[in-house]
Amino acid sequence: MRVLAIGAHPDDWEFHCGGTLLLYRRAGHEVVVCIATNGDKGSKRVPSRELAEIRRRESQAAADRLGAELLWLGFEDGALQDGLEERMAFVEAIRRARPDVVLAHDPDDYHPDHRASARLVRDALFLSMVPQFATESPALTWWPSLYWMDSCSPQFLPTDYVDVTDVFAEKEALLALHASQAEWIDDLSQTDIGEPMRVTNRFRGLACGAKYAEAFCREVRAAGGTASRLLP
Ligand SMILES: [Zn+2]
User: Fold this and answer.
1) Less Cβ around it within 10 Å: N or C end of the chain?
2) Tell me: the pLDDT tens digits for 51-76?
3) CATH superfamily of the domain spanning 2-218
């Protein structure tokens, strides 16, 4: 299969679905990671332009370590809109990735860029099959399956769990590549950058008999679904 994970910011896919992507790679599937914004607001002291370059380098290192292709859309951090320019960029990213499965932010997630990204993904998935909605790459001839990633909130109700225990240390190593985020997120959450991920994945693990698990909610549509489980 071909798997596409779309995150709003650098470090989102590592946090929300890094273990699942590692398992896809171990099973021989192709993975593409797409990052919508350049992350240029994620620091208390590094100027935005310099920060965007740092975050792109960190993201490339994480994608390389995963063995995935990186698609960098470069929209401004904190300002992602559900507009035509963004929609066309998402459609083109989906067509380039040619995914069977897409992993994306929960539509009710905490960050405005995450929520905008969710809406863009849902709409772009359909439009990626419409030939006269023209972008550089050809239209898809199938409807990829879509899973929402865990928002880590009590309101998120998973339909599917992935046991990531075997790859959890590697998942932590992927997140740690985002060294620029450690300082300000540690201040914000009064803990280290990895702790919210450990707690969330341990909590989801309790629900499915695993030490660590990632949770997803499958998007069910009018057509284009499958009865098969597509997660690892
Ligand atoms: Zn984010």
Assistant:
1) N
2) 999 999 999 999 999 999 999 999 99
3) LmbE-like (3.40.50.10320)
